[in-house]
Design brief:
- The chain has about 220 residues and is α/β, with parallel strands linked by helices.
- The protein has one domain: TIM Barrel.
- Helices cover about 55% and strands about 15% of the residues.
- It has eleven helices and eight strands.
- Strands 1-2-3-4-5-6-7-8 form an eight-stranded parallel barrel, surrounded by seven helices.
- Strand 4, helix 5 and strand 5 form a beta-alpha-beta unit.
- It binds SN-glycerol-3-phosphate.
- SN-glycerol-3-phosphate binds next to helix 7.
């Protein structure tokens, strides 16, 4: 399973990349806005830190505009994946991107049928948003499970990125249902590392070590 970091904060990306567990990065307009920096500068810097797929999102609402943005974004770096929202215009843009050899990540997926259409249009990745589904009392992970099953049934190569991850259980369940990727906030990565029994165990080893003669 691949782990992407879901942030545009280069400090967090630098720190997390030292752990050797990060395979890519996803951003969105909200995450970019939080940084208060030039969009392209941030994306370029992220590409210089992580050698893997880096998602950068379009903001046009028509397919022509999305495709133009996709061309510009894909010029930034060879690892750029263009994130396009799941709309009819988005699907048209995804199809054109596939023709032009530009990889896409179809975002704001909330139903398996949307994921089926995105894959058929030629998306390299789809991003179902589990946290936002949980927020409205729908089981986000059920959507992921059904997408994975549908893709398996037909040998579809589009990869499933579990997004809107809010806690370590989301990552665990994503892995259990065979999602290819989870994109996680830095805080969730920190939570995944820690276990109180690990800390207690280290302390006990250190205390016992002090009793070893001639150490
Ligand atoms: O990258 C999109 C997604 O991960 C957003 O998460 O927490 O804003 O629903 P959230």
């Amino acid at each position: 399973m691949k782990l992407f970091l879901d942030t545009a904060n280069v400090g967090q990306i630098r720190e997390a990349s030292k752990l050797g567990v990060i395979d890519g990065v996803t951003t969105n307009p909200s995450l970019i806005a939080k940084e208060g920096r030039d969009f392209k500068d941030v994306v370029k810097e992220i590409c210089s830190i992580v050698d893997g797929p880096i998602s950068a999102e379009t903001v046009a609402e028509d397919s022509e505009g999305m495709f133009k943005e996709a061309i510009e974004l894909s010029k930034i770096h060879k690892n750029i994946v263009v994130k396009i929202p799941m709309t009819a215009e988005g699907l048209k843009a995804v199809s054109r991107c596939r023709g032009a050899g530009i990889r896409t990540n179809v975002t704001l997926i909330f139903h398996p049928n949307q994921a089926l259409l995105a894959a058929k249009a030629g998306a390299s990745y789809v991003s179902p948003f589990v946290g936002r589904l949980d927020d409205v009392t729908e089981y986000g992970m059920d959507v992921v499970r059904r997408i994975v099953d549908i893709y398996d049934n037909y040998g579809i190569m589009t990869e499933v990125i579990v997004a809107s991850v809010r806690n370590p259980l989301h990552v665990l369940e994503a892995a259990e249902c065979g999602a290819h990727i989870a994109t996680i906030p830095y805080s969730v990565l920190q939570q995944m590392i820690k276990h109180p029994l690990t800390d207690i165990g280290i302390q006990k080893f250190l205390d016992d070590w002090k009793k070893v003669p001639g150490r």
